[in-house]
Model the fold of this input.
Amino acid sequence: MGVEAHATNERVTGRKWTVRLDPVGRGRADVRVSCSRPACAAQVLPSAAAGRTAAIGHLKAHLRAGPAPRPSAQCACRAEECHTHIRPAGPRERPVPWRCGGAVVLAVVTDREGRWWQVMECCSRCAAAHPTAKVVATAPAAEAPARSDGFRADAAAPATPGGTTTLGGPAATTPTFSAAGPHFSHSATATAAGTAVPQQASAPRSDHRSDPRSAPRSARPPRRRPPRGRIAQRLVPHDLRPVALRDELTELGELFRAYQARTEPDLALLAELHARKAEAFHAWAEATADTGLRLDARRAEQAAATARLQHLHRIGQAPDGEGPAVARLLTAPAQWNHARSVLAHVAENAPLPGAEARLLVVMVTLRTAQSGVGNLVGQDVKGLPLPDPEQLVGQLVESGWLGISGTVEELIASRPENPTQITVPSLTPDEDNPGPFTFGRKLRPKLSGWAQRVVGEKKLRKGKTEAAVRLLALALATGSDGEGRLGPGGEGIGVDTLSSWCAVDPGDLPALVDRLTAADWLAEAEVTDTLLTGRLTERVLPLGCPLT
Done:
């Protein structure tokens, strides 16, 4: 009696490599793109956006040039004992061994912040267990083990006249990509959800009587479970009852994933999804007595309220629905008071006369307000309406008010990737003098960004308004009430106060007001011998710091 030899069914560990995006150093804008494959050299890019583009392009090049996933490969993540294969059981659950299944795929896993991309060869079930995995290629069905009598399990092989089949099966299918590289999308949901690719049927043996095991069996309908849904990194159980709750959770998971693939946000839709999630998770917690689900439901309620409030602010409607709301750049009364304190300090301690010097001192003060030290580049100075910025910076340095690391010419020529360090000794705190300002380190860039938005506002910039006009815009932004009316209670602002702040004569103030009116900053403006009355237009209300 002949002995039938079976081929060894050895499985190789799946391939895996990672493309990373890391900062080059603290305080620097350039980033390093590295690949774990030994033949790839690291690249240094000037910005995170450029680095992310290069990293994705590098990853796509590997996917286009690399071989297809191998049907005989075992999961790459299994070798590292990932959480999916360890499957720690909860306090009320019995440990269930994880069983890999489905076709072998090539999946791309990434973090939500876009700092690394990992390609791994694994089964479709493991790919579906990773929340961010996208399947880019699938291996063909594995062949049956070879037998000693020369037959191959390949139904597609043509038969020969001698009653045998031709040796050799179909070659592995290589994934095809477009010229722009693989498309990371949700199109591979069938594979990612763990559905196995059906294997090819085995060819019949030449003699059914020689082996009774090969006799045909009656066809049985395969038992198929419904696909398991996934929401918030949780798998929806097959046996969850009521069925309507299971379907709702599955549908919500699909809707959230579709929302993440949108190119533009829809906060109203997001608020509705979070509200539905909160209601569904409350019902799920009642059905399973799971405390974690109750906590997730409360977090979903908070997320729904936040998204709803952001939507109302975006469309300009008050949360109570009674009137319009203004989404201001500086949101709190304390921030508004700090902005006024900076402008008042500059008005009292400006080292040089003139509107141009006053404007430059305001911007430099906001760059160094918290510690007396900051960074400045040439564009920060050249972007201001200054007739001779190099000479003005030199005068501030000669007066001792400003210190720079290098020459004035180097500061004017400096770029964002290599800024010039500046110091203002009068703002540097010490043991005896904590400095003129009391706000913290996080608020300083907000105040600086606010002043930059006001001074560089589009219509002021396109109108080529001079420094005095932009100083007046700063003064009016901090001197109006919540509805934009100038002065406390809309009573107006003193002409002498404004002319002193703008460093111009009182007689020149009406011309500055006309320039702001033409730039759609002011409406109903009227200048008398003592007061300026009027209101800010609705267009610039978000830049205002209302009087409280």
User: Anything to note?
Assistant: The two ends are 101 Å apart (CA to CA). The chain has three domains: 10-88+97-142+186-196, 235-314, 333-543.
